[in-house]
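Quick check before the chapter quiz. The format below is the same one you will see on the exam, so make sure you can read both the input and the output lines.
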Amino acid sequence: MAERYFPRLWDASRIDQLVRAGRLTEEEAKKILEGDKEETE
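Here is the expected output.
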């Protein structure tokens, strides 16, 4: 459920920070960012 809200709250740089901090995996980040692109099209 939280994945739905990541794109609305944070931009790509924030998602990258979460990956580097170990809070998200690369795969999770990719899914979140791809979902964000689909919603804006």
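If your answer matched, good. The mean pLDDT is 80.
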